[in-house]
Amino acid sequence: MELVVETTASSSSSLNKPHDGGSSSNNNTAASSNKATSSHGGNNLLRRWDMLTRFHAGYFRISLALSGQALLWRTLISDSAAASSSSSGHGPLLPLLPSVAFLLLWSLALLALLALAALYAARCLLRFPAVRAEFRHHVAMNYLFAPWISGLLLLQSAPFLFLRPSAPPYHLLWWAFSLPILALDVKVYGQWFTRGRKFLSMVANPASHITVIGNLVTARAAARMGWHEGAVAIFAVGAAHYLVLFVTLYQRFLGSDSLPAMLRPVFFLFFAAPSMASLAWDAISASFDTCCKMLFFLSLFLFASLVRRRLFLFLFYLILCIVIFA
After folding, report:
1. pLDDT tens per residue, range 285-309
2. How many domains does one find in the chain?
3. Is 121 within the bounds of a domain?
4. Which of the two residues, 281 and 133, has the higher pLDDT score?
């Protein structure tokens, strides 16, 4: 009897041990899966935070480029329509460009600006120390002008009637986009005068042209509204600082060449500033006079200096300019 009982007990215990081991292994598996799920969620959260850390104001050059293309397209459409209406017996130099393509380009530029603005707003809320460091950097500081310049370019090329220059929404949006540019002007130009480590000869770089372009775009938008004196005042500020900046960069003082390799394409801003100045003065004087032509040919010369190794590309743009302005 004792032998039978002991054998039964041992057999039952031996049968129960695998069951207990299986339940413990299942618990371990569930715990490990929970840990993996939580770690995966944490990794996703960290990736989102890292994306906000890597995102910076330099990405607004995407919306800046698209907005500039939209304004160019709108100008070509307007000039082609004017040429076709005023031509006597012969057609315009440029065919009428499809308005649908312009609407798509303008909408794409607007969506890009809104998306980048939403990301940067989230960065301001969640990564404010990085934004403050960017605000104090001599190169990154210039790109803070880019979203407001993009807004002004989109405003000037808007295809809607309620955003025409004489409409009140146009005036409100002009103030909304221009006041941050003027505030940044006081900050940047003031530190060029007063702060020793922020003198222009120490911090000047090709990206500094964005500050001048912001003034010129603001002046052009004001001139289209009929605010002649305000446009002249803003144009004078931009032109004065452009002359100083151009001479500083041309002489290459110590510190003016401190630009990362990935930002080398901003050297093309050398001819963007006089080109925008030509458009701004055209809007102020209501005619493409001698001053506008001087600024245009200056930008063309600077463009030729930058693409001297790409002669074919330069000749292509030269022929295109001759066809447009002939």
Report:
1. 988 888 999 998 988 888 877 776 5
2. 1
3. yes
4. 281
pLDDT in tens, 34-43: 544 444 444 5
Residue 324 confidence class, pLDDT cut points 50, 70, 90? low
Range of the domain at 279: 58-79+93-325
| Predicted confidence band of residue 8 (pLDDT cuts 50, 70, 90) | very low
10 falls within a domain: no
User: Rounded to whole angstroms, what are the CA distances from 64 to 130, 149, 208?
Assistant: 22, 7, 15
228 part of a folded domain: yes
Look at residue 201 in the predicted model and tell me its pLDDT. 66
CA-nearest of 191, 192, 211 to 200 is 192
Please name the residues in contact with 263: beta carbons below 8 A apart, sequence gap of 6 or more.
Answer: 58, 139, 207
| Distance separating alpha carbons of residues 308 and 305, to the nearest angstrom | 5
CATH at 284:
1.50.10.150
Which of 94-102's residues contact partners 24+ apart within 8 Å by CB, and which partners?
Answer: 94/323, 94/324, 97/73, 99/159, 101/73, 102/70, 102/73, 102/74, 102/77, 102/159
Dihedral angle, C-alpha 32, 38, 40, 41, nearest 10 °: 170
Q: Which two tokens stand for residue 77?
A: 């459409």
